[in-house]
Design goal:
The chain has 171 residues and is an alpha+beta fold. Helix content is 28%, strand content 19%. Strand 2 and strand 3 form a beta hairpin. The chain is globular.
Length: 171
């Protein structure tokens, strides 16, 4: 035999979560004028205009069948391949920066890391101690010099270690 607790109404909590979603969707449709007979010429709501849900005129198709015009832009650089270990990745990016070789830099570093590296103050930097072990597929190391410190963050990808960020901190 069921207890009185088994006969309680289900909680209204799941329905309560759906109300804001439905209200947001309805507001979006109304603001786009997607429901004919609901919006007047100025974009406001005409509450006296008839609208029949399910009729062929109740919803206006707002999608376009023509593709938007595109302009030729810069091509994206290929993804960095990386190298065998994290210290080599940092050293390769640093060496490429020293000789202004962005192509080599892009082979071992993500675009954001390359851009940040080129924003570092010019000067001579040396690896401070060593890069950490690379445990869990991530590593970092510091290069220090008179202008400041450059921190390199590396991540292990399937093709090798890649510098994901280079952060310059002035002295």
């Amino acid at each position: 035999m069921k207890s009185p607790a088994d006969h309680r109404r289900p909680s209204a909590a799941p329905r309560a979560r759906l109300v804001p979603v439905a209200a947001t969707a309805l507001a979006a449709l109304l603001s786009m004028g997607a429901l004919t007979g609901c919006a007047d010429d100025e974009g406001g709501i005409d509450r006296d205009a008839p609208a029949e849900v399910g009729s062929a005129t109740a919803v206006t198709n707002t999608t376009s069948t023509t593709a938007p015009a595109t302009t030729a832009g810069p091509t994206t650089a290929p993804a960095p391949v990386g190298v065998a270990d994290p210290e080599e990745a940092a050293a390769t990016l640093y060496a490429a920066w020293k000789i202004d070789d962005r192509a080599t830099a892009a082979s071992v570093a993500e675009p954001a890391a390359v851009e940040r590296m080129w924003a570092a103050a010019p000067g001579d930097y040396r690896l401070y101690n060593k890069c950490n072990t690379g445990e869990f597929g991530q590593s970092s190391c510091l290069f220090r010099g008179d202008p400041g410190t450059i921190q390199f963050n590396m991540k292990q990808h399937q093709t090798g270690w890649v510098v994901t960020m280079a952060i310059f901190s002035p002295a």
